[in-house]
Amino acid sequence: MRIATWNINSVRLRIDQVTRFLTEEAPDVLCLQEIKCTNDQFPRKAFERAGYPHMAVHGQKGYHGVATVSRAPLVEVGPRQFCGKDDCRHIATEHDGFELHNFYVPAGGDVPDPDVNEKFAHKLSFLEEMTQMLAEMAGRPAVIVGDLNVAPHEHDVWSHKQLRGVVSHTPVETEAMLAMIEGAGLCDVARRLVPMEEKLYTWWSYRAKDWEASNRGRRLDHVWVTAPLEERALAGGRGSFRVHRQARSWEKPSDHAPLTLDL
């Protein structure tokens, strides 16, 4: 099964890019984040025409939102709320014997101080609740994907030294994410298949005039599996995991590239 995840930054604005990706890469399941539309605005007919008639959508007007679309039938387990906010950052589905959790973690604003930045405080609280949730489901076969908005390792960012004080790579965030992975016994598929010393990015800022030439990226998007699925997730070797960088150069691109894992 090929599982894909992509922060699309408005599914209606970029539906042509999504359907192109579905045609070219043919994932069995696609998890989208930041769909930026309500459930009734989700472009269902376009996905049906593309061969993905099964959908679980948890959206809201103009912001956030997640959706999972599939070729085969899925069972919607339902969204979970975090931090007492119904801001549509999670949807869970079941597929052929395993759970698939699609997350969009808060970005956290610009100031990495929870005392002065409510957005950063929200992010840290979200990560704390997410840690507890994943620890509780550690023994179940599950895949966790999404825009998790943290680049946890040194070579997950273009400059570890320059970004240690920048939201997404601060010590409090990276330590929280690594504790989450360890506490739940999760397998960070990308970093099990791609050497730690190799730079690996999934996001490049719109601010760069030539994102590819500057290559100032961060690995904000992730694919994790619980212990029961680790052997299957790694069985295909490095070629089974891909960051589809080419999509970052398409017309009207998202600032994130899609990822795929052949499980």
UniProtKB/TrEMBL annotation:
The UniProt note on the cofactor reads as follows: Probably binds two magnesium or manganese ions per subunit.
Molecular function as annotated in GO? DNA binding; double-stranded DNA 3'-5' DNA exonuclease activity; endonuclease activity; metal ion binding
EC number(s) recorded for this UniProt protein: 3.1.11.2
Active site per UniProt: 104, 147 (proton donor/acceptor), 256 (proton acceptor)
Q: Name one GO biological process term.
A: DNA repair
| Record: residues binding Mg(2+) | 7, 34, 147, 149, 255-256
Instruction: Answer whether the UniProt record assigns the keyword Hydrolase to this protein.
Output: yes
The family this protein is said to belong to = Belongs to the DNA repair enzymes AP/ExoA family.
What protein does this entry describe?
A: Exodeoxyribonuclease-3
